[in-house]
Task: structure prediction
Amino acid sequence: MNHISVPLLEGAPVSGAAAPSAYLKIENLTKRFGAFTALNRINLEIPKGEFVCFLGPSGCGKTTLLRAIAGLDLQNEGSIHINGRDVSHAEPAQRDFGIVFQSYALFPNLTVDRNVAYGLVNLKWSRADIRSRVQELLSLVGLPDQGDKYPGQLSGGQQQRVALARALATSPGLLLLDEPLSALDAKVRIRLRAEIRSLQKRLGVTTIMVTHDQEEALAMADRIVVMNNGSIEQIGGPEVIYCKPETAFVSDFVGHMTFLDATVLEHGRVGVGSLVLAVANSRGFAPGTTVKLAMRPEEVRTRSIDSSTTNAFEARVESLSFLGAFCRATLNPVDSPGTMIAVDFSTNAMRDLGICVGQTRLVAFPPEALRIFPHDSREMHA
Amino acid sequence: MTIGLSLPAASERAISEKQVAAVLIGALCLILILIIALPLWALLSKSFEDADGAYVGFANYLTYFTTPTLFVSLLNSLMVAFLSTAIVVPLAFAYAYALTRTRMRGRGLFYAAALLPIFAPSLLAAISLVYIFGNQGFLSYLLMGNSVYGPIGIIMGEVLSTFPHALLILVTALSLADGRLYEAAAALGTTKQRVFWTITLPGARFGVINATFVVFTLVITDFGVPKVIGGQFNVLATDAYRQVVGQQNFSMGAVVGMILLVPAAVAFVVDRIARRRQVALLSARAVPYEPALNRALDTFYMIFCILIGGAIVATYGVAVWASFIQYWPYNLSFTLNNYVFSNVEPSGWDPYFNSLKMAAAVSVVGTALVFSGAYLLEKTHAFPLGRAVAQFLAMLPMAVPGLVLGLGYVFFYNASWNPLSFLYGTLTILVINTLAHFYTVSHITATTALKQIDGEFEAVSASLRVPFWRTFSRVTVPICAPTILDIAVYMFVNALTTVSAVIFLYGSNSKLASIAIVHMDEAGAGAAAAAMATAIMATAIMVRMLHILATRFIFDRFQSWRRR
Result:
């Protein structure tokens, strides 16, 4: 059984090489609980080796989708193919996945070794093979000498690694992570993020992680699936999701966003109160349409600009709140009083420019940093 | 590159886990229908039939309510139940208050003393009262010419035997106190009386309601006490016995059974509501209440507890003592003659060993059935309709007094058309009946323990292709070992002391100790009856002590993983 250790540690080709077909293919998946539609015609393809995050607020359907993929909650309509095999109605045991829950679900009465070996015992391996495999997995997750302890004697982060080792023990084709880091301290969480990601890259195992933490999703995923109200809002890489959100919901849920009522004018301009701003992409809205203008606080420019810079305007600093590495300020444009805009100034800029409340400054938003959305589109519930 | 090993394709498996779960749930339903639903159905339909089995509508009920000799039993029962409840609940409340809300010394001892009646058949309280207040009792003069044989004796006996049941509920209710409320009240300068009426009592309100209904139901359906000490004073339970066993009037027995079902059913519904409300009362962030030291109050409560606890221990002590003396009240010298049961009862010690056998069987079979059943209902998801039916039937016995269930068994398992009628009169049917009788409490205990286990264990196992039954035996059962033991002991002790259900069902070879007590008492062998009851009580207490030791052993040896 020596062959098992080699492929495990050697790593497999990660995504990029165009796979002939998706490893996981979901078509028209719908799940209803009574009158409530938890998943509404979900379509999704995930290539082999990719790390995908389902991101959304609680109740958006991301966990329901994960459980449908696992076969723990069967969908009402639609199909799921894993590795080309139709598993739409297969039981969990027939789907070839490993899963890690937020609660870890480690068996408290079994030692770490036995927890990790739990799925191996069933494969009728020899005792020696099981022992070496368990040792290998525990080394992989950085717990080589904790095998004799019980889960209750480990820290949360260590328990999480054991759960990961157990899920990977049978070398599943698909790794499902259901909010695996939510129960951990902030520091541990950030360290485990990197560890899980590098482990996943090394093993090349197709991975889906459910999370409500946008930072986590941005930091870990190859692609993010943003979900809301049982539907997919947008699928894309972290940069695309953050910089080019397709809906007001995505732009609001991922990162911070100021929304202002605006009217589309001619030539790629919009009017906000008495301000006129240029936008890089007017997305086909006809002049005269009322829209929502979205601007990220950190997109504000305040150095090396002058009154001739595009979208520059004078604004009064109404309030400042110190948030560590940066300060969030509320700006009130001089020409359009009452149009409050949240912006972030780095602590650096605060110091260099001497920004303080009551000051009037020249600021600008580059046109490519402004996005417009239909006026009736839903934002996050504020 | 494969990191995947060639695993046997799971689809090759002949039957899936889901099908196994569905079949097992189906089997559970079938068992519960046989041991709970059908006997109750038999009782219900029998009450609408005449002696020949023809449907007669409400004729039996009409006869019952228009026959004064029958109807008066209903009034008697209500009177006894009301008075007993009115005495027990306030006393038990004060006792529970002393145990939970004061720093009186010896609380554990007082708690144990008050729980004593749980370990004995209710008959024993009545037997003792006969010794104390009967025609030759040493305290008969206290009754001022009134006879203990009748309502006075019944009420005293019921108060004694139901006291611990009320106490258990009220101790639970009063220990669920949020210390923060008391601190807030103190900060606002609230008086002690006002704190009691606005915080303590409302907090325990549902416990009080629950205890009231439980005691009322226990009293109105109890057979043991009125049988021994009721004299000519008829109550529903003794009527049912006389109608069925004495006069073979099954229809009228069924009517009495249906009437007895009413208070228990009401109590069941009230309990369900109270349980739901009580949960909402105590938030997860509540801080336990720590009573302050108050010497005057603690002394007052200690005197109260000495009186009540003392009365209970003394009463049961008299019966134990009486079982060891020659001839009450003339020859008080020590003897073991009363324990030679063959002097008064042809079957000798057999009933005692029958009881042990029966209790052991109920304990083993019942615990296995209840725990596996609760697991299937709680942790698997197959066969929703079957799960709903099983869940309902598992909760039903709580609403059915033992006497009523016993009647149902007579009508169902004694029916000539029933292929299972060969069971009638065997020890097996006593086991089945007792198991059904105590199913609900055990089921709730098991379910509560299972709910505390991570709900994702089965999902993880499925992902690792380990079938649920393997996780059940390797993880769930070991984790729940203390609970499983609790259930086994609960079933054993109750099976040992039960009398009301089995009185209809025993056969010549399956007479139980509790039934032998009734018979010996009927035959005027009070000392032998006391001796048998003492033997049962001693056994039950011993089992309970072994239970405490075994639980400690389990925690030390097999649950080391609980230690951090």
